[in-house]
TrEMBL record:
Protein name: PTS phosphotransferase system sugar-specific EIIC component
Pfam families: EII-Sor (PF03609)
E.C. code: 2.7.1.-
Gene source species: Streptococcus milleri
Compartment list: Cell membrane
GO molecular-function terms, A-Z: transferase activity
Length: 297
C-alpha cells in the first residue's frame, strides 16, 4: 500500500523533474535519478536504482531536436518503482508492463504541456510591447505550471487510483497467464540492450573503435581479476589461520566508480587531443593567410 505522504513526495518530484530538465538541467530529471528518489521514498533503494538504471539504458540513445517530444522514461521509472515495491511484482515485469507503457502514454501530456505554454508566451509578447518587465517575469514563471502538471497530474492519479488495479493485474498474470509474465520479464531484460544499440548506431564508433575495444577489455579483465580475488577470499575464510591473518578483511568487486574514473580519463584524453588538433589547424590557417605570427614580431 502506498502511503499518502509517499504519493505527495513523488507527485512533487514529478513536477520538479521536468522543470529541472528544461531549466537547470542538473540530471534530476533522468530516469536513474527518478529511480533513486522513488526507491528512497518507498524504502527500497536497490529496486529503484535497478529500474531507473534500466530505463536510463533504454533511452540512452534517444534524443530530441527542437521542440520534439519523446517518451517520458522518468515518470515511467517513478511509477514502475513505486508499484514494484508496493505490490511486490518483479522489477523486470514492472519495467515492461508499467514503465514502458506509461513512458509512451505521457508523450501526449508532454505535447499538452508544450501547447498550454503558448498562452503565456503570447502574454509575454504583449508585455514586451508595453515594456512591462514584471509581466514578462510573471508570465514566464506561470508557464512552469502546465509543464509541472503535465507530469505531476498523471503520476498523482496513477499512484492514487492505480495501486489496486496494478496488484490485481499482477495477481492475474501470476495465476492465469504466467507465460505472459515471463515474456514481459524477458522483454524488460532486453530493453537496456536496445538502448545501447540505438546509442552505438549514432555514435562515431568507427572513428573511435580503439576506445570502445579498450573499454570492454579493461572491464572484462578487471572483472576476471576481482572475481578471482573474491573467490580466493571466500575459500580462505574457511581456513582459520588465514582468516586470522587477514583480520576479517572483506574483498569486494571493483566498484562502478573505478570504471567511471577510467572512462573519464580516456574521455579527457580524447577531448584534449581534439583541442590540440583544433589549435594546430587554426594556427596553420592563420599562417597561410599571411597574418603575422608571434615569433615574427
Amino acid at each position: 500500500m502506498i502511503q499518502w505522504w509517499q504519493i505527495l513526495l513523488l507527485t512533487l518530484y514529478s513536477a520538479y523533474q521536468i522543470l529541472d530538465e528544461l531549466t537547470i538541467n542538473s540530471s534530476a530529471g533522468s530516469p536513474v535519478f527518478a529511480g533513486f528518489i522513488t526507491g528512497l521514498v518507498m524504502g527500497d533503494l536497490k529496486t529503484g536504482l535497478f529500474i531507473g538504471g534500466s530505463l536510463q539504458l533504454v533511452v540512452l540513445g534517444v534524443g530530441t531536436f527542437g521542440g520534439a517530444s519523446r517518451i517520458d522514461a522518468t515518470s515511467g521509472a517513478v511509477l514502475a518503482t513505486a508499484f514494484s515495491v508496493a505490490t511486490g511484482i518483479k522489477a523486470e515485469l514492472a519495467i515492461s508492463a508499467i514503465a514502458v507503457p506509461v513512458a509512451a502514454l505521457l508523450v501526449y501530456t508532454d505535447v499538452l504541456g508544450r501547447f498550454s505554454t503558448t498562452y503565456f508566451a503570447h502574454r509575454i509578447d504583449a508585455a514586451v510591447e508595453k515594456f512591462d518587465y514584471k509581466g514578462v517575469e510573471r508570465n514566464y514563471l506561470l508557464g512552469a505550471i502546465p509543464w509541472g502538471l503535465s507530469r505531476a497530474l498523471p503520476v498523482f492519479l496513477a499512484l492514487w487510483l492505480g495501486g489496486d488495479a496494478v496488484k490485481a493485474f499482477s495477481d492475474w498474470l501470476a495465476n492465469n497467464a504466467q507465460w505472459i509474465a515471463d515474456g514481459l520479464i524477458l522483454a524488460g531484460k532486453m530493453l537496456p540492450g536496445v538502448g545501447f544499440a540505438i546509442l552505438l548506431r549514432y555514435l562515431p564508433v568507427k572513428k573511435n573503435l580503439h576506445y570502445l575495444g579498450l573499454g570492454f577489455a579493461i572491464t572484462a579483465m578487471l572483472k576476471v581479476v576481482f572475481d578471482y580475488i573474491s573467490t580466493l577470499a571466500t575459500a580462505s575464510s574457511a581456513v582459520k589461520p588465514i582468516a586470522k591473518a587477514l583480520g576479517g578483511a572483506k574483498f569486494e568487486g571493483l566498484p562502478m566508480i573505478g570504471i567511471a574514473i577510467i572512462g573519464f580519463a580516456l574521455a579527457a584524453l580524447s577531448y584534449q587531443n581534439a583541442i590540440n588538433k583544433q589549435v594546430v589547424t587554426v594556427a596553420a590557417e592563420q599562417s597561410e593567410s599571411g597574418e603575422i605570427d608571434d615569433d615574427e614580431l
